[in-house]
Write a structure and sequence with these properties.
Elements (H helix, E strand, L loop, with lengths): L8 H4 L2 H4 L2 E9 L2 E8 L4 E4 L4 H14 L1 H9 L8 H25 L2 H4 L4 H10 L9 H4 L7 H7 L2 H9 L6 H8 L21 H17 L10 H13 L5 H14 L2
Helix pairs in contact: 5-7, 5-12, 5-14, 7-11, 10-11, 12-13, 13-14
Amino acid sequence: MLSYNPINTEMLNTPRLQKRLSLKGAVQISCHSFLVYKEDGGKTFLKTGKDENIQKSVVRNMIESNPFISKMLRRYHIKPSIDTKTLMELTNGHMNETCNIAMGVYSILSEKIKKQVDKICLKEASMLHDLGKILIPSKILNKPAKLNTKERKIMNIHSTLGYELLKTQDINPETLALIKYHHQNLKHSGYPNLPIENTSSDLGVQIISIADKYSALREPRCYRKRLSRLEALLILYREVREGKILPDVFQALVRYAEKYDN
């Protein structure tokens, strides 16, 4: 179990200490998500995503530790920029709500099905799944209209960017896989490409994927209104009929939504 030690916040804002910080993971306390940071001396502490200096320092270290990230950004002509406002909004909003839904769906599944996924990895991955969006240009993230083909290609790399950022940290490999493939489906027609033989994380991917989509559909976006519970479920049911979502996972979401989604 992680032990969280108090740490002087003013000290965290000094460049010397910021370079020594790393992102250890995420935890949820009383339905609120917190990022877990670790200082080289061994101390760990929690932040909600509001401290811009810490976020930029840690993400900058991640980028410097993995040359492939810069290569990806150059390939898609993305100017390296860390959008900490997006991280704060995601941590306090969508990623936290995705975690609530994912764990609600998990709790309703049968014990036999639950054995196919690691609950701890599922929870952490659902809280970190959209971390890569902090490197996606805000004009694409917040575009009040449908994305064009080029913009959609850029948006679709956010799951890979999140994976590449986090694999430089002390994150469980199964958690990383769930983050990377949370936009995949049973037909393997999502993104990024998932090797056909790699089915070990299918259930976890299914749970995070449906939780992510349901959360997004129930939120108001700059290009559409907030959808009702029934409207959102009907959209996801079409994916069940197309063979993209497990019926058991969908039924668990329906039961969760009926009980908790007001």
